[in-house]
Amino acid sequence: MRKQEVKKASEKDKPDLKGTFVSVMLLGVFIIITWFGAFALFISR
Amino acid sequence: MHLHKYEKIWLIFGTGSLVVFLLIVGYGAFWQGTHPQSHGVTIDTNNIESNEAFKPENLGLTKVEEDKYIVNIAASAFFYDLGKDEDGKSVKTIRIPKGSTVLWQAATKDVVHGFHVAGTNVNMMVEPGYVSSIETVMDKPGTYTIVCNEYCGIGHHMMYATVEVYE
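Structure tokens for the assembled complex are given below, as produced in the milestone run.
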């Protein structure tokens, strides 16, 4: 009984990072696209 | 140290991308010979003629062998010296056959200038005391303008020349 209570509490403490995760990934994808865009320009010229 | 599951994913993603970028740039630098246009080759700014490449008779376009050319440029405010034609006039346009490998070498007689063959990767700073050089293959026919893209003084905007790449 006691163990269950502890578990519940620690799960509740976990921050919800879904929004952060999505924004970090969007930014990452944007950086990758622009990096390879500039690289493709350099290679093709 | 406890890391959230998402944190682990984006740290791996970020570090992974950094590694990929560095590998690509490193391959270019160490195996393909990519280097900064000014890479420590020095010259006396007040006497660039002392360097063989920048003697007046060696300026402009020189054919080295089939499909291989050297272009030597003496930049000064506000003029690119590309040598003289048969009539003794300053060359304003150089013509290069398509597909040629061209080594561009530039030095300045005074202040910092730019040397950009617009629309190509030939884009360098020309700094006092250094020789800037870059080698490219001119494989797209057309007329390109060489522009100074480092503000060099009152006549900066009049500092240009033309390159024609013909079939």
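The helical segments of chain B are 5-30. Residues 38-166 of chain B form a domain with the Immunoglobulin-like fold (CATH 2.60.40.420). Further analysis is deferred to the final report.
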